[in-house]
C-alpha cells in the first residue's frame, strides 16, 4: 500500500537562503491561507526535526529527520521522512521550499522532490526530482511571530501543522520510524498505529 502510494508520485507527472520572516516578504501561495503573518513558502538550506506534541522532549528542537528509504523501481527511488535514529544516513542534507514545493538536495546535486500527500501514509519523495513534472505546491513554513515565544518555525501541509505523527514501521530491529500524515489504524500493516504519537515538524537552520 505504501509503496503503491509513493509509486504514484512518479506518474503524477531552491530558492535563495533567507530567514523565515524575510521569506514572507513575497506573497505566499494559497496553500498558506489561514496560517497568519508568519507564513512563508520560500526557504532553503534547512533540516526538519520532529517535536513530540504530547510527551516529553530531550531538547527544544526535536529528533532529527532524514529522507529514509521507501523502495525503488528501475530509474527511480522513493523516500519518506524518517528519524535519523532509525535510519542513520543523510543522503539529502539540505531541504528547500520553492513556492510551497518541498525538496531535498544531496551533495552531488541530486534532488528528491516531494509528491502529493495522502492521509494515512507517510509524505513521500521521489528521486530523481525531475520525475515529477509539476511540483506539488502544498507545503508552507509558519514562523512564531510572538516575541515572547521565539519557537522554531513549523512545517505545514495543506495549511495544517497539527496532523503529523511519528509511527514505527514494525518491531523489527532495523525498522524505520517515519512521519505519517493523519495516521489510521487501517494502514495495511505499514506501521504500528497504536504506537504513533503526534509531532510538530520543526524547520531547523533558518536564521
Set down the secondary structure blueprint.
Layout: H1 2-11, H2 20-23, E1 39-40, E2 42-52, E3 63-73, E4 76-83, E5 94-98, E6 101-105, E7 111-114, E8 124-127, E9 139-142, E10 154-157, E11 164-168, E12 177-181, E13 197-204
Antiparallel strand pairs: 1-9, 2-3, 2-5, 2-13, 3-4, 4-8, 5-6, 6-7, 7-8, 9-10, 11-12, 11-13
Characterise the protein shown here:
- It comes from Phanerochaete sordida.
- This protein is mainly β and 207 residues long.
- The chain has a single domain, classed as Trefoil (Acidic Fibroblast Growth Factor, subunit A), CATH 2.80.10.
- Helix content is 7%, strand content 37%.
- The strands form two sheets. It has a seven-stranded antiparallel β-barrel with strand order 2-3-4-8-7-6-5. A three-stranded antiparallel beta sheet has the order 1-9-10.
- A hairpin with a 2-residue loop joins strand 5 and strand 6.
Biggest pleated-sheet summary: 7 strands, antiparallel, barrel
What letter string, H or E per element, gives the SSE order? HHEEEEEEEEEEEEE
DSSP strand count: 13
Share of helix, binned: under 10%
CATH 2nd-level architecture: Trefoil
Q: What Rg, in angstroms, do the CA atoms define?
A: 16 Å
Count up the helices. Answer: 2
Q: How far is it from the N-terminal to the C-terminal residue, by CA?
A: 39 Å
Spatial strand sequence of the major β-sheet: 2-3-4-8-7-6-5
Estimated share of beta-strand residues: 35-45%
- CATH names the topology as Trefoil (Acidic Fibroblast Growth Factor, subunit A)
Q: What is the typical, i.e. mean, pLDDT?
A: 89
Judged by helices, strands and strand pairing, the structural class is mainly beta
Task: Indicate the overall shape.
Answer: globular
CATH class value = Mainly Beta
Low-confidence stretches: 6-24
Q: Count up the domains.
A: 1
Amino acid at each position: 500500500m505504501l509503496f503503491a502510494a509513493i509509486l504514484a508520485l512518479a506518474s503524477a507527472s531552491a530558492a535563495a537562503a533567507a530567514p523565515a520572516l524575510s521569506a514572507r516578504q513575497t506573497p505566499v501561495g494559497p496553500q498558506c491561507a489561514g496560517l497568519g503573518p508568519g507564513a512563508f513558502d520560500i526557504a532553503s538550506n534547512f533540516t526538519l526535526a520532529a517535536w513530540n506534541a504530547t510527551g516529553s522532549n530531550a531538547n527544544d528542537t526535536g529528533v532529527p529527520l532524514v529522507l529514509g528509504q521507501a523502495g525503488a523501481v528501475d530509474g527511480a527511488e522513493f523516500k519518506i521522512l524518517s528519524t535519523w535514529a532509525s535510519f542513520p544516513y543523510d543522503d539529502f542534507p539540505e531541504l528547500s521550499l520553492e513556492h510551497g514545493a518541498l525538496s531535498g538536495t544531496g551533495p552531488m546535486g541530486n534532488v528528491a522532490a516531494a509528491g502529493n500527500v495522502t492521509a494515512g501514509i507517510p509524505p513521500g519523495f521521489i528521486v530523481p526530482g525531475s520525475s515529477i513534472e509539476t511540483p506539488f505546491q502544498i507545503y508552507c513554513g509558519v514562523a512564531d511571530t510572538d516575541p515572547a515565544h521565539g519557537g522554531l518555525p513549523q512545517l505545514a501541509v495543506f495549511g495544517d501543522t497539527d496532523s503529523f505523527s511519528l509511527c514505527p514501521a514494525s518491531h523489527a530491529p532495523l525498522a524505520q520510524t517515519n512521519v505519517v500524515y493523519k495516521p489510521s489504524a487501517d494502514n495495511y500493516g505499514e506501521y504500528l498505529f497504536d504506537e504513533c504519537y503526534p509531532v510538530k515538524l520543526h524547520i531547523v537552520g533558518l536564521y
